[in-house]
Amino acid sequence: MASTSDIRNGLCIKYNHDIFKIVEFLHVKPGKGPAFVRTKLKSVTTGKVIDNTFSAGHKIDEVRVETHKFQYLYNEGETFHFMNTEDYNQITLEKSTLDAPGLLKEGEVVTVLINTEDGMPLSVEMPQSVILEVTATEPGVKGNTATNATKPATVETGATVMVPLFINEGDKIKVETEKGTYKERIKE
């Protein structure tokens, strides 16, 4: 049994007869009243995100997990196929267990959290950022730059990312996977 002081991002817990992964948390100590922990939990079975508040010292039921590196192979509709990079076993996961399926390109190595009790995959952690090629975007219009002007661009995985006006088709860009936002242009 763990307590609220053990809460951290990525921790998997049993809550309301389901397994949740902690996406965000904040320890709050108000001037008046007891301390508490405000959390954002993502269900690993349904992908639904809920907000919850635990009082300080509350006991939480931690789920022991192992992390393994898997390479993304391909997808069939809502099913995504991965291969373990150590023993080459393949697994299939539902789209709901992925944090950012639109930014996943073939060959990308991700971290899969696996429940040690039953060996079931719980969730997929993407790398901090991915490098993708822009396949379609409107040309930037000169003089159309008030401040931080952006335009939509479609990347090789089919996802749409807002990019600065100077980005053109064929450019490679670094995208932050957590928020799905443009970071920088990659020079070759």
From TrEMBL:
GO terms for cellular component: cytosol. GO terms for molecular function: translation elongation factor activity. Pathway: Protein biosynthesis; polypeptide chain elongation. The keyword Cytoplasm applies. Residues 130-185 form the Elongation factor P C-terminal domain. It comes from the Bacteria. Pfam families: EFP, EFP_N, Elong-fact-P_C. Keywords: Cytoplasm, Elongation factor, Protein biosynthesis. InterPro entries: Elong-fact-P_C, NA-bd_OB-fold, Rib_uL2_dom2, Transl_elong_fac_P/YeiP, Transl_elong_KOW-like, Transl_elong_P/YeiP_cen, Transl_elong_P/YeiP_CS, Transl_elongation_fac_P. GO terms for biological process: peptide biosynthetic process. Residues 67-122 form the Translation elongation factor P/YeiP central domain. It is found in: Cytoplasm. Belongs to the elongation factor P family. Involved in peptide bond synthesis. Stimulates efficient translation and peptide-bond synthesis on native or reconstituted 70S ribosomes in vitro. Probably functions indirectly by altering the affinity of the ribosome for aminoacyl-tRNA, thus increasing their reactivity as acceptors for peptidyl transferase. This is Elongation factor P. It comes from Spongiivirga citrea. The gene is efp.
